[in-house]
Amino acid sequence: MIEALRRQLASTRLTERLERLAGDTPASAPLSLRLELGRLDSDWLQQLPADAPFWYRARPAQQEFRLGIGHAFQVTSTGPHRFAALDNAFAGFCQHWRRDGPAFAFAGFAFTANSDGPLPNALLAIPAILLENLKGDCSATLTIPAGRLRQAAAEWQRLLDRPARRSASRLCPSYPEMLAERAWIARVNAALRHIDSGQVDKLVLSRCRKIEAVQPFSPAHILGQLVVQQPDSLVYAYGNGQQTFLGATPERLVRLNHGQVDADALAGTAWPGSGELGGEKNRHEQLLVVRAVCEALAPLCNTPPGIGSTSEHPASQLRHLRTRISAAAQPGTTLFDLVRTLHPTPAVGGFPTGAALDWLAAHGEQRSGWYSGGFGLLSPDGDGEFSVALRSALLAGHTAELQAGAGIVAGSDPQQELDEIEAKMGTLLAALGAVTEASRNGTGS
Known about the structure:
globular; 2 domains; Anthranilate synthase; alpha+beta; 19 strands
């Protein structure tokens, strides 16, 4: 299938189609050409590039797999107006975007507006090559600035030439660091005292763990494991050639589809041996998230948001409470407008939001990569979806930095909250290659 794509890239007919598509558009305008590839059973992970930017987004249970390779266009932003900046930039791309079929952009952003690190705080990109498999129907969408038509085929060929290796990594032996665990439990106790004072109802604390491997980690192998292990989650990744941020999340932040808004309120966690999911603590946590999501959406919607029934949602060996919330957006509302009003939900920050974020900042909460931020897919007609980037790992060579969190409310038990985080990290540890002493006892902080 990829060889057939390579042959099409070498054809003079491809250039002729691009020239007809371009017409008299500005040199900076995006041109997107769609090529049908036929029927194929592929998750596209064999094409993950070794040294080029890539985006991966899969819903295995829905047989939906997308891999974006290289950047034809990109924009980054940071600070309190980062979503508006991406929104305006994307609108500029779309104004002159010529395409002969569906095309998409990807985006990701960090939890806080001013964090810095190996990944941009907020990034939006149109991939140079987008490989899609939707229930077995495969296609490639090729994108290039109109002013670079003559270099297009060579650039696309180069991006397909160096797929990364796909093999498991053997994890280095590691040992428990009980001091780090005690320090985290001390933070939970401090959070509980703050909650008991009546200043906040919920605080979400995260925990980071660093894992070393004998060989460099293979993002393709890890993503393949997540696709098998968590078919009901969104499996996601962004790589920049040096680092890869990846994970599997059960939580949608928001979807906009022809004016229809859909959001998740997801909280509460159960795992084997943890007890019932429908206990008082989990129900209270869930109600806080439902309330906050509805209040955030209301100003952008024509009618009060509708609240669906609450059900259990599986995510590997974990289960969560999830409530679907829907509404009709007011005319002119963009996907980034919805993201800006919803993020961060109490599921990842706390409640009330402002007071919770102030406490987290004052107590040194650190989140790596885009953990508990967002990962999204956008179409030029304004539709799209963002998911909350949970259960993540930031890979860099031989090192993986895992992160997971737990919501602290009145009555939370610190040891059980630590056990919850260990259960969440266990899903990633299994995908990294093996369940070792590190996954049973915990390392890092």
